[in-house]
Amino acid sequence: MPRSTQSNPDRLKRLAYNEEQRNQKPGHCNKFLHAVIDPDFLREPHGSQVLPKLTELGCKYELEPQPTPSTVTFYRTVPSTVSTTGAVTETRIDEPFAVLLLDGATFLSYVRNYELLTIVRTVKEQLRAATVDKRLSLLVFGLVSYCRANRGSVGRRQTEHALTEVQLFEDVSHQLLETAEQVATFVSQLARSIAERPYKQQQTDRYASEQGDQYFGNEKKGCVRVEGTAGLQQLFQAQLIKVPSVTLEIAEAILGAYPTLNALLQAFRDAGDEAAPNLLAPITIRRAGGPIAASARRIGPELSRKIYLLYTATNPTQEL
Predict the structure, then answer these.
(1) For residue 212, is pLDDT > 50?
(2) Residues 6+ positions from 101 with CB-CB distance below 8 Å
(3) CA distances from residue 197 to 116, 200, 202 in whole angstroms, order as listed
(4) Is the pTM of this model over 0.70?
(5) Residues 6+ apart with CB under 8 A from 288
(6) Can you tell me the distance from the alpha carbon of 145 to that of 235, in angstroms, rounded to the nearest whole number?
(7) Cα 277 off chain centre by
């Protein structure tokens, strides 16, 4: 066998690239994400399940006082090969996301005194001074329970106004949570999304750069991949099957007469407005690919009309 002409440094670079791509994939990327959690975030009753959820996800976590109490920030470590000996170092990348948790009583005190927007801005400034700009998510724990026990504390309209202000002026989303399970689930779901962000961004950039050569593409099972003209017929068939009452046999019957969507649309135009709705009605349906019997079913006028409207209607509220 001929010896490989690839030099050792080139081979190491290739191996490092393959390892980087593997580490970005869902299921592998979680172990490189770190959640930095302020100890106050884990206080009872809201924080008891956060650490088990992160452990289940495979993310690392660190308990460390934050510039603002009851906050969580994130960073990822990126391993990189730096020498021909295989020595590996880790690069830290701070993620632009953070979570702030307020209990119901504290939250309502800020709302009552018209301080919520100021507090949120202060928190964002503190987090910005520590690392990079953060997109903040606000968790309000036990608000419903507190309001039930302290009726008349703050009006609903004032509360909604305060939450709308922080969303409009500071781009801060919020969640009203009542159980420790909900808090842990939110943190773990956010961590997973952050961990998978580089992979999803890579996929988006790859498909965007291939527009013109590739119209549809997906890694998941059951999706139709189209490159150039290859796969267009399968995509057309998949579209038809999504129509209620259209089975695989019916879709195959339509494709037998009109192999592409363009051919069907041209046939609708050639038939004219009066005949087009019934264009597909006389097409015979083969049962499971078998022979056509004397009593073979046909598509019929009702289903033909639905398919016609699906592809030709210009009214967005048109019902099939």
Answers:
(1) no
(2) 41, 46, 70, 71, 139, 140, 141, 183
(3) 30, 5, 8
(4) no
(5) 249
(6) 51
(7) 38
